[in-house]
Amino acid sequence: MPNFDYAAPATLAEAAELMGSSGTVRALAGGTDLIDQLKSNRRNADLVVDLKRVPELQRLEVDAEGLHIGAARCCSDVHHDATVNALYQGLADSTGLIGSVQIQNRAAIGGNVCNAAPSADTTPNLLTHEAIAVIRGESGTRNVDLVDFFLGPGQTVLQQGEFLQELILPTPPENSASAYLRFIPRNEMDIAVAGVSSFIHVDPSSRKVLKARIALASVAPTPVRARQAETVLEGGVASEELFSNAGAAAVESATPITDVRGSAEYRKELVNVLTQRTLNICMERIGISV
User: Fold this and answer.
1) What H or E segment, with its residue span, contains residue 134?
2) Distance from the CA of 25 to the CA of which of 31, 132, 227, 233 falls in 20 to 30 A?
């Protein structure tokens, strides 16, 4: 591993000042990706800023804006949080899938997002819940819709000196639910060949879909919203036929590659199947039969 300086600020102001230092500065939220990248020379750093000790970056609470998740809060805490399990079930699904339990105890939500891997498990759920990224720099904060946060594999809108402070997820309405499923070659601790998160809000009396959000992982250069599938769902009556049509429409948003883990056509078929399955799980969670 190359030599680098290390700092562990205790306040947001100190963190912002350190992140604005000259040279290559890397933020460490959990380190489960960054340390491996430094060891394998896939990334370099003159300074690593450990953000775990900043209280605001450990935030996990609800207020009038919705659910606030500090960028350095670990996946295990989010996975076991009562509010997350009650209102943001897809996020609870995904945070229990990242690596081993030991990794989940260390890995941070913000790190999973900022690593900007197309296969990241937490990101599709955050997109379906229309998360907002609060970005901190020396001059203050700016908010970015998470759907606009990713520019490409490993690339985000974060500018020099900026870091992710927190994610804000609006409070979902009653009679709504989310779900996440992925397909992996092994039983656990593998990277998704394809992943799908679904969110739907349904009128319980008519079963009409009032709102739908579908997001995909591992099938494009960035996590992507399946907007055609959302259009198919919204205004329709929840049924197996509607969900089948939505699955087919979701494939239109996928632009996968062929690699050692699966062909492009295989990934497209997975998107179709996983979309239908996650929609059915959402309905089960709402308590409405299809």
Assistant:
1) strand 132-137
2) 132
Task: Summarize pLDDT for 36-88 with one digit per residue, the tens.
Answer: 899 998 899 999 999 999 999 999 999 999 999 999 999 999 999 999 999 99
Q: Which CATH class is domain 57-169?
A: alpha beta
Q: What share of the chain is helix, strand, coil (3-state, %, to 5)?
A: 35, 25, 40
pLDDT, tens digit, 9 for 90 and up, residues 178-211: 999 999 987 666 789 999 999 999 999 999 999 9
Rounded to whole angstroms, the Cα distance separating 168 from 73 reads 13
Region of residue 127 (phi > 0: left; psi between -120 and 50: alpha; otherwise: beta): alpha
Short-list 39, 19, 41, CA closest to 28: 19
Beta carbons within 10 angstroms of residue 51's beta carbon: 29
What average pLDDT score do residues 17-21 get?
Answer: 96
Superfamily of domain 176-286: CO dehydrogenase flavoprotein, C-terminal domain (3.30.390.50)
Asked if 277 contacts 93 with a C-beta cutoff of 8 angstroms, the reply is no
Q: Which of 42, 27, 104, 117 is nearest to 73 (CA)?
A: 104
CB 282 within 8 A of CB 288: no
